[in-house]
Specification:
23% of the residues lie in helices and 34% in strands. The protein is α+β, with helices and mostly antiparallel strands. It has a single domain, classed as Immunoglobulins (Immunoglobulin-like, Sandwich). A hairpin with a 2-residue loop joins strand 10 and strand 11. The longest helix has 23 residues. The termini are far apart. It binds 2-acetamido-2-deoxy-beta-D-glucopyranose. The site of 2-acetamido-2-deoxy-beta-D-glucopyranose has 7 residues, from loops. One of its GO terms (cellular component) is external side of plasma membrane. It is found in: Membrane. InterPro entries: Ig-like_dom (IPR007110), Ig-like_dom_sf (IPR036179), Ig-like_fold (IPR013783), Ig_sub (IPR003599), Ig_V-set (IPR013106), IgSF_BTN/MOG (IPR050504).
Length: 153
């Protein structure tokens, strides 16, 4: 009898341990360096779960730092929604969510888009929101053309 009880206890322990460790041990990873883009570019703000784990059942909110209530993109109850003012410019890579990839596609970047963006994911008691910086420069050819203008006699 005793060995069986031990086995049941061990099994229970393993199941409970596994359930608590699986989400709690997850980290959201964003690049430490800014994403650099030119105005008009389509860019990706990278963000992924480590160790690799599905994000399909999580709530995901991409928002500009300090603007939590007006997110670029909201994914909740397995449904994605573009934020006000970002319609047609933002999306997640739906098929990548299963692989824990929460990266945001931001199309036609504007100079006013520069700033810090938070990739927030939550599930039950677990929540993380690391920030990634976006730098937007004006189109280089425009700068060169302006320079040539000044130099011509
Ligand atoms: C996430 O998906 C994007 C778009 O497909 C891709 O460029 C990027 O490399 C992916 N990141 C990871 C960590 O797989």
């Amino acid at each position: 009898m005793e060995p069986l009880i031990h086995k049941v206890c061990l099994l229970t322990f393993l199941v409970v341990f596994d359930a608590t460790s699986s989400v709690a041990d997850l980290s959201l990873i964003v690049p430490p360096d800014p994403v650099v883009a030119s105005a008009g570019d389509d860019i990706i703000l990278p963000c992924h779960l480590s160790p690799q784990s599905s994000a399909v059942a999580m709530d995901i909110r991409w928002f500009k730092e300090g603007d939590f209530t007006n997110p670029l993109y909201l994914y909740k109850s397995r449904t994605g929604e573009e934020g006000e003012g970002y319609k047609g410019r933002v999306s997640l890579f739906t098929q990548e969510l299963e692989r824990g990839n929460l990266s945001l596609l931001l199309k036609n970047v504007k100079v006013s888009d520069r700033g810090r963006y938070k990739c927030q994911a939550s599930h039950l008691d677990w929540i993380q929101e690391p920030a990634v910086a976006l730098q937007v420069t004006i189109i280089p050819s425009l700068v060169i053309r302006a320079g040539q203008c000044y130099r011509s006699p």
